[in-house]
Amino acid sequence: MFDEKYERIDRRSGTNFHYFLLLPCLVFFGFYSLFNHSVFEFSFTEQDIDPKKVVLDALETNLASNWSRKYTAEPHLAGTNYGLVKWTEEKFAEYGFDTTIDPYEIYVSYPNDHDLNLVNSSGDVIYKAPLKEDELKKDPTTKGNDTIPTFLGYAANGNVTAEYVYANYGTREDFDTLKENNVNVTGKIVIVRYGKIFRGLKVKFAQDNGAIGVLLYSDPGDDHGITPANGYKQYPHGPARQESSVQRGSVQFLGGIGSAPGDPTTPGYPSKPGAERQDPHASIGKIPALPISYREVKPILAKLNGQGKKIKGFEGELEGFKYYTGPNSNYTLNLYNDQIYNITTMWNVYGEIKGEKTDEVIIIGNHRDAWIKGGAGDPNSGSAVLLEVARALGELKKAGYKFKRTIVLHSYDGEEYGLLGSTEQGEFFADKYQREVIAYLNLDVAVSGKHFKLGSSPVLNKILLEIAKELVYPEEGVGSLYDHYVKAKGGEHIPTLGSGSDYTVYLEHLGIPSVDLGFQEGKEDPVYHYHSNYDSYYWISEFADKGFVYHNLAAKYLALLTLGISERELINFGLQDYSKGLLSYLNTTISRVPKEWLSKPIKLQECYDWSDSVYISKVTNGYYAPDRPHGTRSMMMKYTSNLKNKHTLETVIDHAFENLHSLHNSTLSFDAQTAYLQEKFEEPNQPFWQKIRLHYQIKYHNKYLQYFERNFLHSKGLHERPWFKHIIFASGRYTGYAGQNLPGLNEAIEDEDFDRFVRWLKIVSKTAKRVSKRLHN
Ligand SMILES: *[C@@H]1O[C@H](CO)[C@@H](O)[C@H](O)[C@H]1NC(C)=O
Ligand SMILES: *[C@@H]1O[C@H](CO)[C@@H](O)[C@H](O)[C@H]1NC(C)=O
Ligand SMILES: *[C@@H]1O[C@H](CO)[C@@H](O)[C@H](O)[C@H]1NC(C)=O
Ligand SMILES: *[C@@H]1O[C@H](CO)[C@@H](O)[C@H](O)[C@H]1NC(C)=O
Ligand SMILES: *[C@@H]1O[C@H](CO)[C@@H](O)[C@H](O)[C@H]1NC(C)=O
Ligand SMILES: *[C@@H]1O[C@H](CO)[C@@H](O)[C@H](O)[C@H]1NC(C)=O
Ligand SMILES: *[C@@H]1O[C@H](CO)[C@@H](O)[C@H](O)[C@H]1NC(C)=O
Ligand SMILES: *[C@@H]1O[C@H](CO)[C@@H](O)[C@H](O)[C@H]1NC(C)=O
Ligand SMILES: *[C@@H]1O[C@H](CO)[C@@H](O)[C@H](O)[C@H]1NC(C)=O
After folding, report:
1. Given a cut of 60, is residue 538 above it in pLDDT?
2. Is 122 in the pocket of ligand 2 (CB under 6 A)?
3. Which residues does the UniProt record annotate as the domain PA (predicted)?
4. Which residue range is the domain that position 13 belongs to?
5. What is the reported pTM?
6. Does 160 lie in the same domain as 253?
7. What ligand is nearest to the CA atom of residue 123?
8. What mean pLDDT, rounded, does the chain reach?
């Protein structure tokens, strides 16, 4: 049961708004303000300041290393270290931002006790895992009594003893493979290696298959050959993984079936005091789980040698055994996990510089919490870059520059446990964000290597590539950041987003164009000790980014990107990249459709689902409130009568392509109009009346750009994942991190559900048609 608050938020955040109907109203209010006051102040004033130059000059000084040192000096697990909250707020304030600390009351778990024993058939413990990473002389972060234990956030408490089975990566396919090989995991403890999919889903699949406990470990076979076996020394003596390193992390189910990110006790609504709490087990597991190192897994997996099956594709690169599945009836594991579950306060920190257009906002976000005392890569390379961007924008403000749009910085708490801080605030401010936010720019791991990585909503592709052309890549002979990117990618392709970081609520729940960016390790770079004590200041300053030059480049890029979006008169989106993307996603999707589906007849009922009928929105009090249609029936008659009688899937697909092509056409002319208006705006010496007219044309046009992506939300959300509203982009329900384009269609193909496929095809097709029409008007 959802309370009233939830209903309200869900209804407004989730519906296929007709944002464009708002426009006449805007124009009206525009004229109102024209006669009222102050219209002459807007955007006519020429400023002498070159904003790009000011921020780039500011970033000639590089303080990233200072901020990295500060953030990684003390533990800052989610919901802890209020000192760092205050310090972050003070830095924002120092750089001229108006600040807020926004608390949420969130259900989490903290480590208390753990134990792992290998037991032989006489009941004797023959190996006791230390469950602790080594202290390293060279790396001060690894020492002292304040390091954070190895544990998995939201892993259930329990003390289980059972035979155990090795399940490769623990993907859905791996568990199916085990079944096909008659390896039964019911009642067993399952050992899986990290990689391929989000760890919480490994635990979910283990649980779904009847396992009673899970061990997760990092296999050197997933370290791109940077291994001791290949002659690389272990950290801190070389780039290979330290053998005692452990990846902590959350085992929340994230984007899995039936679950949602955020506080698992408040799905879809904010965790403010007094919020109704629900059973969290839709989004978290019931079986205990522990993370261990490869050194710890060795004696355990060795006992499975020759037992059970040896399955192709299951082999890692540890020596001394052959990765048999087991079980071995002579050995059991005793796995004990104890955590303190409680509702805890978490703090987001915000900083804002108001622009002239206060209803057009750009948010730059990064989380602050880390699994470990350090966290120099995850997330505090991002935090260092965020502060550098704050400093640079602060310089610009100090120079007297007036920003065109409002710029807001967010420092989130609790990302690591399941995007807690960002999701809860996104749910709390859903209305405001959908009304005001133009774009969300995400930093998480800003630097863990030298390879530039982008993920984005396609409306931002154009500007992302443009800005990359303006900066030089630090390695000699490479050229610009753009040159580096296209060379590494083999082209200009920018992937779409899945999940695993704070952009999720913005893009997939609220329909706000989002970007995720950072420099990642490539195959030849030092192994990144993700969520391990070795993700420390020493590691980042000695191995990943000597001199913090990639931090500095990330700050320059993000600062320029922010200005590129905030300071251009016309919102700098390319809609044609979006519609082109859509065509190609549909194309790819259709190539997966089983041949025999194509000629299947479509019944009218299947083709038109009443409950999904067209929404009409209206403007109430300057606010868009979606409404149930009146006149739906006539619209529906029109729709169905168009569909004649004998339709097969193939004809419906053709029709969908037609609608997508027509959307593409509309976006082409719309983009041309954007360019034309921008050009007009830049024309000097226009007569006064022309400027006024242009002002309203631009305002109107910008609203279309700002709300474009909102049109691709579906009120009911995805199949079995109602929190995920976006019909084009989602995280894979079986992968967690990886993006899934056109999720409704692709999931229906995976599930061999013809009717559902048709329904989603209709939703996508109809949306494209509607948006195309709106862009034309
Ligand atoms: C940054 O760190 C350097 C080296 O520790 C120090 O000299 C400098 O004063 C610091 N600057 C700021 C602004 O904290
Ligand atoms: C179990 O381990 C103990 C201690 O090492 C040993 O004495 C005992 O013989 C072992 N039992 C079996 C069945 O191997
Ligand atoms: C941890 O170490 C610090 C300094 O080394 C010491 O002051 C503190 O008492 C220790 N805390 C605990 C709980 O041992
Ligand atoms: C966990 O179970 C094992 C085996 O039954 C037992 O020896 C151990 O004492 C238990 N640990 C705790 C903390 O209850
Ligand atoms: C798997 O093991 C469980 C528990 O021992 C048992 O109940 C179940 O029948 C087994 N499944 C198969 C397919 O053998
Ligand atoms: C288990 O131990 C017994 C007695 O030591 C032995 O006979 C048997 O082969 C062992 N089973 C396995 C699977 O190793
Ligand atoms: C849980 O939180 C409440 C309120 O913050 C606190 O009073 C209580 O001590 C906490 N319980 C545990 C076990 O930490
Ligand atoms: C569509 O997919 C086919 C192969 O399935 C490919 O040949 C064609 O180039 C694709 N078209 C687009 C626009 O992506
Ligand atoms: C798109 O535009 C092209 C060129 O103007 C035109 O030939 C084509 O029919 C249009 N397609 C759709 C689906 O509107």
Report:
1. yes
2. yes
3. 160-237
4. 2-36
5. 0.91
6. yes
7. 2
8. 90
